[in-house]
Here is the input.
Amino acid sequence: MPEALHFTSIFDLIIQSAMPWFGMDIGGTLTKLVYFEPKDITPDEQDREAGILRNIRRYLTRNSAYGKTGHRDTHLQMDNVEIRKRRGSLHFIRFQTTDMGNFLSLAKQKGMAELVTTVCATGGGAFKFEKDFRDQVNMKLAKFDELDTLIKGILFADLHNRTECYYYENARDIVKSEKRAFNFSQPFPFILVNVGSGVSILAVYGPDNYKRISGTSLGGGTFLGLCCLLTGCTTFEEAIQLATKGDNRKVDKLVKDIYGGDYNRFGLPGDLVASSFGQMHINDKRVSVSREDLANATLVTITNNIGSIARMCALNEKIDRVVFVGNFLRVNPISMKLLAYAMEFWSNGTMKGLFLEHEGYFGALGCLLQFNGELAAALNDNLDHHGCEGEETIEVPTNSDNIRPSSDNPSENTNCPTTR
Here is the structure.
Protein backbone atom coordinates (compact mmCIF):
# COMPACT_ATOMS: atom_id res chain seq x y z
CA MET A 1 0.00 0.00 0.00
CA PRO A 2 2.59 2.60 -1.08
CA GLU A 3 0.04 5.42 -1.52
CA ALA A 4 -1.46 4.88 1.94
CA LEU A 5 1.99 4.73 3.48
CA HIS A 6 2.87 7.98 1.72
CA PHE A 7 -0.14 9.74 3.20
CA THR A 8 0.58 8.16 6.57
CA SER A 9 4.05 9.67 6.66
CA ILE A 10 2.72 13.06 5.56
CA PHE A 11 0.08 13.17 8.30
CA ASP A 12 2.57 11.91 10.89
CA LEU A 13 4.88 14.77 9.93
CA ILE A 14 2.04 17.27 10.15
CA ILE A 15 0.97 16.05 13.59
CA GLN A 16 4.55 16.30 14.85
CA SER A 17 5.25 19.76 13.45
CA ALA A 18 1.95 21.66 13.56
CA MET A 19 2.14 24.08 16.44
CA PRO A 20 0.95 25.12 18.93
CA TRP A 21 0.53 21.93 20.97
CA PHE A 22 -1.73 22.18 23.99
CA GLY A 23 -4.29 20.20 25.97
CA MET A 24 -7.28 21.49 27.90
CA ASP A 25 -9.24 20.35 30.93
CA ILE A 26 -12.46 22.35 31.03
CA GLY A 27 -13.90 21.97 34.52
CA GLY A 28 -16.98 23.45 36.10
CA THR A 29 -14.97 26.11 37.92
CA LEU A 30 -11.52 26.25 36.35
CA THR A 31 -10.17 25.59 32.89
CA LYS A 32 -6.62 24.29 32.79
CA LEU A 33 -4.39 24.55 29.74
CA VAL A 34 -0.97 22.93 29.26
CA TYR A 35 1.10 24.44 26.46
CA PHE A 36 4.23 22.87 24.96
CA GLU A 37 6.85 25.45 23.89
CA PRO A 38 9.40 23.81 21.57
CA LYS A 39 13.05 24.78 21.94
CA ASP A 40 14.23 22.90 18.85
CA ILE A 41 12.48 25.16 16.32
CA THR A 42 12.25 23.57 12.86
CA PRO A 43 13.01 25.52 9.65
CA ASP A 44 9.30 25.52 8.79
CA GLU A 45 8.47 26.95 12.21
CA GLN A 46 11.22 29.57 11.83
CA ASP A 47 9.55 30.71 8.61
CA ARG A 48 6.26 31.03 10.47
CA GLU A 49 7.87 32.61 13.57
CA ALA A 50 7.42 36.06 12.07
CA GLY A 51 3.68 35.59 12.12
CA ILE A 52 0.95 33.87 14.08
CA LEU A 53 3.01 31.16 15.78
CA ARG A 54 5.51 33.61 17.24
CA ASN A 55 2.75 35.88 18.51
CA ILE A 56 1.04 32.98 20.27
CA ARG A 57 4.28 31.70 21.77
CA ARG A 58 5.33 35.12 23.01
CA TYR A 59 1.92 35.92 24.44
CA LEU A 60 1.69 32.64 26.37
CA THR A 61 5.28 32.52 27.65
CA ARG A 62 6.05 36.18 28.35
CA ASN A 63 3.00 36.79 30.50
CA SER A 64 2.00 35.30 33.83
CA ALA A 65 -1.45 36.90 33.88
CA TYR A 66 -4.09 37.05 31.17
CA GLY A 67 -7.14 39.23 31.63
CA LYS A 68 -8.92 39.17 34.99
CA THR A 69 -8.71 35.47 35.90
CA GLY A 70 -6.04 33.92 33.67
CA HIS A 71 -2.75 32.93 35.31
CA ARG A 72 0.36 31.01 34.29
CA ASP A 73 1.77 29.07 37.23
CA THR A 74 5.42 29.83 36.53
CA HIS A 75 6.64 27.76 39.48
CA LEU A 76 5.22 24.63 37.83
CA GLN A 77 6.99 25.10 34.48
CA MET A 78 8.77 21.94 33.32
CA ASP A 79 11.85 22.45 31.13
CA ASN A 80 13.81 20.13 28.85
CA VAL A 81 10.86 17.78 28.36
CA GLU A 82 10.68 15.51 25.31
CA ILE A 83 7.33 14.84 23.63
CA ARG A 84 7.07 13.10 20.27
CA LYS A 85 10.81 13.60 19.63
CA ARG A 86 10.51 17.34 20.26
CA ARG A 87 12.22 18.98 23.21
CA GLY A 88 10.89 22.01 25.02
CA SER A 89 9.07 23.43 28.05
CA LEU A 90 5.61 22.81 29.45
CA HIS A 91 3.65 25.82 30.66
CA PHE A 92 0.65 25.53 32.98
CA ILE A 93 -2.15 28.07 32.58
CA ARG A 94 -5.55 28.36 34.27
CA PHE A 95 -8.55 30.65 34.08
CA GLN A 96 -12.11 30.76 35.36
CA THR A 97 -14.38 28.71 33.10
CA THR A 98 -16.86 31.59 33.21
CA ASP A 99 -14.29 33.50 31.12
CA MET A 100 -14.39 30.96 28.28
CA GLY A 101 -15.87 33.62 26.00
CA ASN A 102 -12.81 35.82 26.53
CA PHE A 103 -10.51 32.87 25.84
CA LEU A 104 -12.25 32.14 22.54
CA SER A 105 -12.08 35.81 21.57
CA LEU A 106 -8.35 35.78 22.29
CA ALA A 107 -7.86 32.58 20.27
CA LYS A 108 -9.65 34.22 17.36
CA GLN A 109 -7.67 37.44 17.73
CA LYS A 110 -4.34 35.60 17.77
CA GLY A 111 -5.29 33.53 14.72
CA MET A 112 -4.92 30.19 16.48
CA ALA A 113 -7.51 28.50 14.26
CA GLU A 114 -5.30 29.20 11.25
CA LEU A 115 -2.70 26.83 12.70
CA VAL A 116 -4.78 24.02 14.24
CA THR A 117 -8.32 22.85 13.64
CA THR A 118 -8.66 20.39 16.52
CA VAL A 119 -8.24 20.89 20.26
CA CYS A 120 -7.90 17.86 22.52
CA ALA A 121 -9.91 18.41 25.69
CA THR A 122 -11.38 16.68 28.69
CA GLY A 123 -13.82 17.64 31.44
CA GLY A 124 -17.51 18.44 31.29
CA GLY A 125 -16.80 21.68 29.46
CA ALA A 126 -15.51 19.73 26.47
CA PHE A 127 -19.18 18.92 25.83
CA LYS A 128 -20.67 22.18 27.09
CA PHE A 129 -18.49 24.46 24.95
CA GLU A 130 -18.14 22.26 21.87
CA LYS A 131 -20.55 24.39 19.83
CA ASP A 132 -18.85 27.63 20.95
CA PHE A 133 -15.45 26.39 19.77
CA ARG A 134 -16.92 25.36 16.43
CA ASP A 135 -18.98 28.50 15.80
CA GLN A 136 -16.62 31.16 17.15
CA VAL A 137 -13.14 29.95 16.18
CA ASN A 138 -13.84 27.10 13.74
CA MET A 139 -12.16 24.55 16.02
CA LYS A 140 -13.35 21.05 16.79
CA LEU A 141 -12.91 19.38 20.17
CA ALA A 142 -11.52 15.86 20.42
CA LYS A 143 -12.89 14.67 23.75
CA PHE A 144 -10.91 12.30 25.95
CA ASP A 145 -11.95 10.44 29.09
CA GLU A 146 -11.21 12.40 32.26
CA LEU A 147 -9.78 9.48 34.19
CA ASP A 148 -7.60 8.22 31.32
CA THR A 149 -6.01 11.63 30.88
CA LEU A 150 -5.68 12.14 34.63
CA ILE A 151 -3.62 8.98 35.09
CA LYS A 152 -1.48 9.56 31.99
CA GLY A 153 -0.74 13.09 33.16
CA ILE A 154 0.26 11.93 36.65
CA LEU A 155 2.64 9.26 35.36
CA PHE A 156 4.26 11.63 32.84
CA ALA A 157 4.76 14.40 35.41
CA ASP A 158 6.31 12.04 37.94
CA LEU A 159 8.61 10.56 35.29
CA HIS A 160 9.94 14.00 34.35
CA ASN A 161 9.97 15.68 37.76
CA ARG A 162 12.01 14.01 40.50
CA THR A 163 10.24 15.96 43.23
CA GLU A 164 6.69 15.59 41.88
CA CYS A 165 5.43 13.36 44.69
CA TYR A 166 5.64 14.31 48.37
CA TYR A 167 4.16 13.66 51.79
CA TYR A 168 4.03 15.44 55.14
CA GLU A 169 6.38 14.28 57.86
CA ASN A 170 5.02 14.45 61.43
CA ALA A 171 1.53 14.64 59.96
CA ARG A 172 -0.16 14.31 63.36
CA ASP A 173 1.20 17.73 64.32
CA ILE A 174 -0.35 19.92 61.64
CA VAL A 175 1.55 23.04 62.73
CA LYS A 176 4.98 21.36 62.66
CA SER A 177 4.43 18.93 59.78
CA GLU A 178 6.94 19.38 56.95
CA LYS A 179 6.88 18.56 53.26
CA ARG A 180 9.17 15.70 52.17
CA ALA A 181 9.86 14.22 48.73
CA PHE A 182 8.56 10.69 48.09
CA ASN A 183 10.04 8.26 45.56
CA PHE A 184 7.12 7.37 43.30
CA SER A 185 9.22 5.78 40.54
CA GLN A 186 7.47 2.42 40.98
CA PRO A 187 3.93 3.60 41.63
CA PHE A 188 1.72 0.56 41.05
CA PRO A 189 -0.62 -0.26 42.58
CA PHE A 190 -1.97 2.88 44.22
CA ILE A 191 -5.25 4.42 45.31
CA LEU A 192 -6.00 7.68 43.51
CA VAL A 193 -8.34 10.12 45.24
CA ASN A 194 -9.47 12.83 42.83
CA VAL A 195 -10.98 15.69 44.83
CA GLY A 196 -12.91 18.17 42.72
CA SER A 197 -16.47 19.36 43.27
CA GLY A 198 -17.13 15.77 44.32
CA VAL A 199 -14.70 12.90 44.90
CA SER A 200 -13.83 9.87 42.77
CA ILE A 201 -11.60 7.11 44.15
CA LEU A 202 -9.73 4.77 41.81
CA ALA A 203 -7.58 1.70 42.27
CA VAL A 204 -4.77 1.99 39.71
CA TYR A 205 -2.89 -1.21 38.83
CA GLY A 206 -1.08 -0.04 35.69
CA PRO A 207 -0.99 2.79 33.12
CA ASP A 208 -4.11 1.44 31.38
CA ASN A 209 -5.54 -0.72 34.14
CA TYR A 210 -7.72 0.89 36.77
CA LYS A 211 -11.20 0.81 38.23
CA ARG A 212 -13.38 3.26 40.08
CA ILE A 213 -13.98 1.77 43.50
CA SER A 214 -15.77 4.52 45.39
CA GLY A 215 -16.54 8.19 45.68
CA THR A 216 -18.57 10.74 47.55
CA SER A 217 -20.63 13.80 46.70
CA LEU A 218 -19.04 15.60 49.67
CA GLY A 219 -16.06 17.30 48.06
CA GLY A 220 -14.64 20.69 47.22
CA GLY A 221 -17.96 21.95 45.94
CA THR A 222 -19.58 21.02 49.25
CA PHE A 223 -16.89 22.88 51.18
CA LEU A 224 -17.28 26.02 49.10
CA GLY A 225 -21.08 25.90 49.08
CA LEU A 226 -21.34 25.49 52.85
CA CYS A 227 -18.74 28.19 53.46
CA CYS A 228 -20.67 30.62 51.27
CA LEU A 229 -23.84 29.87 53.25
CA LEU A 230 -22.20 29.98 56.68
CA THR A 231 -19.66 32.79 56.30
CA GLY A 232 -20.85 34.95 53.42
CA CYS A 233 -17.65 34.39 51.43
CA THR A 234 -17.91 34.28 47.65
CA THR A 235 -14.76 32.52 46.36
CA PHE A 236 -12.80 29.36 47.07
CA GLU A 237 -9.67 31.39 47.87
CA GLU A 238 -11.60 33.45 50.42
CA ALA A 239 -13.04 30.31 52.02
CA ILE A 240 -9.57 28.77 52.39
CA GLN A 241 -8.17 32.01 53.80
CA LEU A 242 -10.91 32.04 56.43
CA ALA A 243 -10.36 28.37 57.27
CA THR A 244 -6.63 28.92 57.77
CA LYS A 245 -7.35 31.39 60.59
CA GLY A 246 -10.13 29.43 62.31
CA ASP A 247 -10.42 26.77 65.02
CA ASN A 248 -12.84 23.88 64.46
CA ARG A 249 -12.79 22.98 68.17
CA LYS A 250 -15.12 25.92 68.83
CA VAL A 251 -17.65 24.38 66.46
CA ASP A 252 -17.22 20.60 66.68
CA LYS A 253 -17.95 18.34 69.63
CA LEU A 254 -14.75 16.55 70.66
CA VAL A 255 -14.15 13.25 72.44
CA LYS A 256 -13.16 15.15 75.60
CA ASP A 257 -16.46 17.06 75.51
CA ILE A 258 -18.18 13.70 75.96
CA TYR A 259 -15.72 11.74 78.14
CA GLY A 260 -13.86 14.56 79.88
CA GLY A 261 -10.58 13.48 78.28
CA ASP A 262 -9.14 10.68 76.15
CA TYR A 263 -11.18 7.54 75.48
CA ASN A 264 -8.32 5.19 76.23
CA ARG A 265 -10.16 1.92 75.67
CA PHE A 266 -10.29 2.60 71.93
CA GLY A 267 -7.25 4.86 71.70
CA LEU A 268 -9.24 8.00 70.94
CA PRO A 269 -7.51 11.23 72.01
CA GLY A 270 -9.58 13.93 73.67
CA ASP A 271 -9.04 16.42 70.83
CA LEU A 272 -10.48 14.05 68.23
CA VAL A 273 -13.72 15.21 66.58
CA ALA A 274 -16.62 13.12 67.83
CA SER A 275 -19.37 15.13 66.10
CA SER A 276 -18.82 17.68 63.34
CA PHE A 277 -20.63 20.94 64.18
CA GLY A 278 -21.78 19.15 67.34
CA GLN A 279 -21.69 22.28 69.51
CA MET A 280 -23.73 24.49 67.22
CA HIS A 281 -27.03 23.53 68.87
CA ILE A 282 -25.84 25.40 71.98
CA ASN A 283 -26.88 29.05 71.72
CA ASP A 284 -23.87 30.50 73.59
CA LYS A 285 -21.46 28.57 71.37
CA ARG A 286 -23.34 29.54 68.25
CA VAL A 287 -23.35 33.25 69.13
CA SER A 288 -19.62 33.40 69.92
CA VAL A 289 -18.32 31.43 66.94
CA SER A 290 -16.47 33.32 64.18
CA ARG A 291 -16.63 33.04 60.39
CA GLU A 292 -13.10 31.67 60.47
CA ASP A 293 -14.07 28.94 62.93
CA LEU A 294 -17.04 27.90 60.79
CA ALA A 295 -14.87 27.73 57.67
CA ASN A 296 -12.23 25.68 59.47
CA ALA A 297 -14.82 23.28 60.86
CA THR A 298 -16.31 22.85 57.39
CA LEU A 299 -12.89 22.02 55.97
CA VAL A 300 -12.13 19.55 58.77
CA THR A 301 -15.51 17.87 58.20
CA ILE A 302 -14.90 17.41 54.47
CA THR A 303 -11.27 16.28 54.75
CA ASN A 304 -12.02 13.86 57.61
CA ASN A 305 -14.73 12.24 55.51
CA ILE A 306 -12.52 11.96 52.42
CA GLY A 307 -9.60 10.59 54.43
CA SER A 308 -11.77 7.99 56.14
CA ILE A 309 -13.25 6.73 52.86
CA ALA A 310 -9.82 6.67 51.19
CA ARG A 311 -8.35 4.60 54.01
CA MET A 312 -11.20 2.08 53.89
CA CYS A 313 -10.77 1.75 50.12
CA ALA A 314 -7.04 1.16 50.55
CA LEU A 315 -7.70 -1.54 53.14
CA ASN A 316 -10.30 -3.25 50.96
CA GLU A 317 -7.96 -3.27 47.94
CA LYS A 318 -4.91 -4.19 50.08
CA ILE A 319 -3.01 -1.18 48.71
CA ASP A 320 -0.89 0.99 50.98
CA ARG A 321 -0.25 4.00 48.71
CA VAL A 322 -2.92 6.69 48.60
CA VAL A 323 -2.44 9.67 46.28
CA PHE A 324 -4.63 12.78 46.55
CA VAL A 325 -5.09 15.05 43.52
CA GLY A 326 -7.54 17.62 42.23
CA ASN A 327 -8.18 21.35 42.14
CA PHE A 328 -9.50 21.27 45.70
CA LEU A 329 -5.86 20.96 46.76
CA ARG A 330 -4.59 23.87 44.65
CA VAL A 331 -3.04 26.61 46.83
CA ASN A 332 -4.53 24.72 49.74
CA PRO A 333 -1.81 23.31 52.03
CA ILE A 334 -4.16 23.27 55.02
CA SER A 335 -6.38 20.67 53.31
CA MET A 336 -3.38 18.56 52.36
CA LYS A 337 -2.14 18.62 55.94
CA LEU A 338 -5.58 17.69 57.24
CA LEU A 339 -5.80 14.77 54.77
CA ALA A 340 -2.28 13.68 55.73
CA TYR A 341 -3.29 13.81 59.40
CA ALA A 342 -6.43 11.75 58.76
CA MET A 343 -4.48 9.05 56.90
CA GLU A 344 -1.73 8.95 59.52
CA PHE A 345 -4.10 8.80 62.47
CA TRP A 346 -6.65 6.28 61.25
CA SER A 347 -3.98 3.92 59.87
CA ASN A 348 -1.84 4.16 63.03
CA GLY A 349 1.03 5.40 60.89
CA THR A 350 0.93 2.55 58.34
CA MET A 351 -0.33 4.77 55.47
CA LYS A 352 0.79 8.16 54.28
CA GLY A 353 -1.23 10.58 52.21
CA LEU A 354 0.76 11.37 49.06
CA PHE A 355 0.43 14.57 47.05
CA LEU A 356 1.64 15.90 43.70
CA GLU A 357 3.07 19.27 42.69
CA HIS A 358 1.04 19.72 39.50
CA GLU A 359 -2.32 19.01 41.11
CA GLY A 360 -5.20 20.13 38.94
CA TYR A 361 -3.26 20.04 35.67
CA PHE A 362 -2.96 16.31 35.04
CA GLY A 363 -6.07 16.06 32.87
CA ALA A 364 -4.86 18.83 30.55
CA LEU A 365 -1.38 17.30 30.46
CA GLY A 366 -2.86 13.91 29.63
CA CYS A 367 -4.79 15.51 26.76
CA LEU A 368 -1.59 17.01 25.38
CA LEU A 369 0.02 13.57 25.47
CA GLN A 370 -3.03 11.99 23.84
CA PHE A 371 -2.93 14.54 21.04
CA ASN A 372 0.68 13.83 20.26
CA GLY A 373 0.39 10.09 20.69
CA GLU A 374 -2.90 8.26 20.40
CA LEU A 375 -4.52 10.78 18.07
CA ALA A 376 -1.60 10.65 15.64
CA ALA A 377 -1.62 6.86 15.75
CA ALA A 378 -5.34 6.85 15.08
CA LEU A 379 -4.90 9.15 12.10
CA ASN A 380 -2.24 6.84 10.69
CA ASP A 381 -4.41 3.78 11.26
CA ASN A 382 -7.35 5.50 9.58
CA LEU A 383 -5.25 6.35 6.53
CA ASP A 384 -3.86 2.82 6.32
CA HIS A 385 -7.37 1.44 6.05
CA HIS A 386 -9.16 4.17 4.13
CA GLY A 387 -6.57 6.22 2.29
CA CYS A 388 -7.07 9.98 2.30
CA GLU A 389 -10.27 10.53 0.40
CA GLY A 390 -12.59 13.31 1.41
CA GLU A 391 -12.78 14.50 5.01
CA GLU A 392 -12.42 11.31 7.01
CA THR A 393 -13.20 11.23 10.72
CA ILE A 394 -11.65 8.90 13.28
CA GLU A 395 -12.48 7.63 16.70
CA VAL A 396 -10.16 8.43 19.54
CA PRO A 397 -8.89 4.98 20.60
CA THR A 398 -9.37 3.49 24.03
CA ASN A 399 -7.45 0.59 25.51
CA SER A 400 -9.59 -2.54 25.66
CA ASP A 401 -7.55 -3.75 28.62
CA ASN A 402 -8.58 -0.76 30.67
CA ILE A 403 -10.96 -1.48 33.53
CA ARG A 404 -13.54 1.20 33.00
CA PRO A 405 -15.05 3.32 35.78
CA SER A 406 -18.66 3.05 36.76
CA SER A 407 -21.43 4.46 34.61
CA ASP A 408 -21.44 7.86 36.27
CA ASN A 409 -18.09 8.59 34.67
CA PRO A 410 -18.46 7.07 31.20
CA SER A 411 -15.60 7.08 28.74
CA GLU A 412 -16.25 8.87 25.49
CA ASN A 413 -15.13 7.55 22.10
CA THR A 414 -15.65 10.71 20.14
CA ASN A 415 -15.35 11.28 16.42
CA CYS A 416 -12.33 13.49 15.89
CA PRO A 417 -11.46 15.16 12.59
CA THR A 418 -7.97 15.12 11.21
CA THR A 419 -5.78 18.05 12.14
CA ARG A 420 -3.72 20.31 9.99
